[in-house]
Design a protein that fits this description.
The structure holds 3 protein chains of 3 kinds. By secondary structure, chain B is α/β, with parallel strands linked by helices. Chain B is 29% helix and 23% strand. Chain B folds into 5 domains: 141 residues, 3-Layer(bba) Sandwich (FAD/NAD(P)-binding domain), CATH 3.50.50; 124 residues, 3-Layer(aba) Sandwich (Rossmann fold), CATH 3.40.50; 179 residues, FAD/NAD(P)-binding domain; 147 residues, FAD/NAD(P)-binding domain (3-Layer(bba) Sandwich); 72 residues, Alpha-Beta Plaits, CATH 3.30.70.20. Classes of the chains: A alpha/beta, B alpha/beta, C alpha/beta.
Amino acid sequence: MIEYQKKIQNIAERLLNEKKVDVVLGFKKGTIPMMNQPCLVRVPDETQKLVWDSNCGINLTNYLTNRKERIGIIAKGCDTRNIVTHIVENKIKREQLVIIGVPCTGMIDKAKINGLMVNEIAEVSEHNQEITITDSRGATKTIQKKEVLQSNCSICKYKNPVIYDELVADLVPESKDIDRYEDIRKIESMASSEKFKFFEDMLSTCIRCYACRNACPLCYCPTCFVDESKPQWLGKGMDPIDIRTFHFLRAYHCAGRCTDCGSCERACPMDITVRQFTKKLEKDCVELFGWEAGLTLDKRPPLDHYKTNDPQSFIK
Amino acid sequence: MEYERILSASGPTGGHLVRLSDKKEPKKIAWLQCIGSRDMNRCDNAYCSAVCCMYAIKEAVISKEHSGDDLDCAIFFMDMRTHGKEFERYYDNAKTKKGIRFIRSRVHTINPVQGTDDLEVRYVTEDGRILNETFDMIVLSVGLEIPKEIVELSKKLNIELTSSKFSKTGTFKPVDSSRKGIYVCGAFQGPKDIPQAVVDASAAAAAAGEILSSARNTLTKKPEIIPEIDVMGDRPRIGVFVCKCGINIAGVVNVPDVSKYAETLPYVEYATDNLFSCSQDTQDKMAQLIKEKGLNRVVVAACTPKTHEPLFQETLKNAGINKYLFEMANIRNHDSWVHKDSPEAATEKAKDLVRMAVAKVAMLQPLKEAELQVNQTALVIGGGISGLVAAKTLSNQGYESHIVEKDSTLGGQAKSIYKTTTNEIVADELKQLINDVTTDSKIHVHLNTTIKKVDGFVGNFQTTLVGNATETVIPHGVTIMATGASAYKPSEYEFGKDSRIITSLDLDQKLINHDPMLKQLQSAVFIQCVGSRENNRLYCSRVCCTHSIHNAIELKELNPNMDIYILYRDIRTYGERELLYRKARDLGVIFIRYSVNNKPSVAIQNGKMSISVTDHVLNRPIIIETDLLTLASALIPNPAEDLAQFFKLPLNEDGFFVERHAKLGPSEFATDGVFLCGTAHYPKPIDESIAQAKAAASRAVTLLARKNIFTSGQVAFINPVNCSSCGICISICPYSAPSFIEKGPFTGKAQINPVLCKGCGLCVASCRSGAIHHNGYDNGQIFNQLFAITELPN
Amino acid sequence: MADWEPKIVSFFCNWCTYGAADLAGVGRMQYPPYFRVVRIPCTGRMHPKFFLSALREGVDGVWVSG
Ligand SMILES: Cc1cc2nc3c(=O)[nH]c(=O)nc-3n(C[C@H](O)[C@H](O)[C@H](O)COP(=O)(O)OP(=O)(O)OC[C@H]3O[C@@H](n4cnc5c(N)ncnc54)[C@H](O)[C@@H]3O)c2cc1C
Ligand code: SF4
Ligand code: SF4
Ligand code: SF4
Ligand code: SF4
Ligand code: SF4
């Protein structure tokens, strides 16, 4: 990771020096372990604060929306796919961007690491594909990174950037033959009462903080439907029906656009697995339209077209 | 016909499929084709009625859909004539997916089975076997025939009939009867199906319009315009009128109760009931009440808005209220008529529907209709026979047009055709037509020209033409698509390997040139359906059977000793073309049927050409030596993807344009201001192309004759503040109505052109940001209806 | 369950199903009085918000046809 970091700093410095970009969007070290923070670097000297490790799960595309300057952005596989969607949806122009692509080996799930230690965690470091955790009492533990990956990363099909101008390392091998939809099939096979119960339980702890929405680069509307007031058809409180409505419709808004970057799930303070909603729609898009989000600049997602020969078999 | 009534929901059995004699549900039904058609023995109708094959298949398919897959449907036929658009695919589907049995045979007799109402069909198969099969029900596919009275009427009118008693018309004047000023259309001109009859009707209207054009607009009256009262910002004052519709509604629903209930609803100022709301005196009374009570919104609870909304809207207008401040509650078609036996539930439902309508009408806003000027010029794309006739028809009615032709000459495919079925020389007629067009001061011809770009919309198109390295922009109000179709270049049957293997059009060329080799031929073979009716081209090219038969007759006439073989799958000489088929057989042309799975093969050895084909009667291969092999190759549409994109027109999977409605709108598109004719629509012979060209022109005139048009007020509009510029609306709209704003404070946000918008609402539902609103069906209005549903009355 | 009377909201396209429902009336076909029809200009207008809202308002079923 340290090589990645050096390379990122160098590229950022060069781009700023050569005045190719006005600003570089990357990560800096956070105040607590495993919480790197997005940051904007505008002068070459400050590029030294840019970091890279397995705690850069936040999708930086979210910070591109409607920006006017020329930006160098550090982007993992999933991030680049969101950048593609952003360009297609006029949220940023391709010419404004220098995409610094990071071939990604996966981000770690801090909840999983927290679960491994009894005491508070003081430091987490990584070497090759091993993670070493040190707690506040100085006890350490070393584990394989693959055991503590974010769940979206362990089923990721696009680790390498799909679009980039600079590359910080050689491309990594993509995983083959992964089953992305095991969980979804399980839900699909439930009887409707079971499903109802499943969703009810799943969302019972949601506090409607909208952190999931705010972390998502797809959610850039000036007024989100949940905030609509005229007419106000959706309650603003903690009514379970309203909470479910929020999640269902948000997922629908992400249909054909979500890249399963995991930012939403990562942001949730209540550890709710909201990706299950978006993944269901992702699966439908693959099966019905042969579509995966964010892979091409010259096509729009399936729900953006009107075609007379769209598949209809699901209409019963 | 009787069977159609049995299948119909409004028929004698309410759409339940039963045998009339004993009300038993049939398990086996047979259709017998060509009853009263193609038959000189039992009736005098030598022609083919052209519609029966298709209607029999349709009935069989519908019967299966009604009664499930257990129902056994068998169609006894001689040739299956599915030559219409999308018909071949329907036939294929009926055969392969619906399991309908098609039995190629001649039916000998039908005998009742003793003691039952069943019937036994005795028939002879192609290979000469005699078989019997019993059915519960037999449907006779009877043909069309001109009634005696019409024959007499024709005599009185002094118009000439053909030997089959249809009106006599010419290929180049397909709707002109023999007497000037009398035009014919539909099945009186010849047996035909609905789309063709609709085409004829429009064409006949055009022909009549041509001679009457000088009288246009001399007798129209202008209605008085009543100023509209501004109700914006006023509190809703709703009037509810509940209709009894005689006893249609009042016989089931407690109407006074509903109207009393309506009075209690929010914002309702006045409610009453009427015996017949749509009668003139009630209308007047309503207008008066609106004024008297100061009503600013109206609900009529009555029949269906689909028929009556315009009428009531007119009443609103007469009372000075914007016509969009109106809503109907359908308490007849959707209530009293369908819940006859539960008057209480029906009354409750009526109250719910009224409550929903009141909830909606309270939210409605007055709407404006965009008015636009119609440019009086037409653009005709394609200078084939269809394009030429369309332009000429427009010119005769006083309208200017531009013909765009990508080739260096006018005339299209017709240039390569020798004679019509009625023996007119195509070249002569075409020359005359081209001359008429090129000397017409109202027609501007652009040769070697194609279309580069199209802007604008109905009434105001701006089309950029490129020709001879220059670009010109033509403003026009309407567009007629006449891009035609060309002959398929075969890759089968050794085509291209021997100069004796040619296409139908090559043979026409030889006939046109009076090529002396034709007389020398000892033997000639035609192979039909080359490239049609199979695989990726599952349609019938419609003209080739007649074309080959006609050419076979020409050859026989040149040299009666020539042996001529036509290898076919079904002979599709529909209508009076059947007479040619008969004539060819009389002249000794030999017809041999082959099946798609066992096509003929061609061998050339030592300079000799021989064709081998499996004879369907003898059921064994025979070999024909021949000097000339003509391949009746398919018609394939000229490429038009770019035009389809420019004008937002759909193409079907074969590349033909898709018309507005397969039956009722064959010569126009769903896109306003764009019309369609000729072989760009579907393969068809010259007379039908001409009829459709006239039809397209006639449809176009309905627009051109108006100086300006009003579009609906019920369209979508965007609030730019909420727009996130995502571009979905622009991508999804089937009519290209939305676009990005190019200057001003909202640059980059989307906007909708109300003139192009059809109000479908697709963009409204697709905009995640909730920026798009729908006049007349806005979210708030629909939500209000939904909220009103679950509120309990009282 | 036998005398359960569901409330179903039906969104009908103005051009097809709405007209078909009119015809069902013309043909005097009889069906249970549980549906309340909302006329929409085209099924394209159908927004997921309407499903969710209708269900939220307590209807037992949503039927979209067009
Ligand atoms: C093999 C064959 C055999 C036939 N046999 C008979 C027969 O025996 N009897 C009979 O009555 N009919 C027959 N027909 C049908 C007859 O040819 C047609 O009905 C008639 O000619 C159609 O005229 P049209 O104007 O619609 O199309 P076309 O004649 O095809 O004319 C279309 C014109 O549009 C032009 N064009 C195309 N695309 C563009 C573009 N993008 N921009 C500008 N110009 C464009 C073309 O160059 C062409 O000139 C036959 C047709 C074929 C192909
Ligand atoms: S949930 Fe939907 S409406 Fe809300 S911000 Fe995201 S995309 Fe926009
Ligand atoms: S919904 Fe979640 S996983 Fe999908 S793109 Fe948004 S943040 Fe990423
Ligand atoms: S982040 Fe979690 S708790 Fe917050 S709204 Fe989303 S799912 Fe609910
Ligand atoms: S779909 Fe909505 S947000 Fe997107 S461009 Fe159109 S109006 Fe704007
Ligand atoms: S309502 Fe339909 S026609 Fe109108 S702009 Fe929207 S999608 Fe286009």
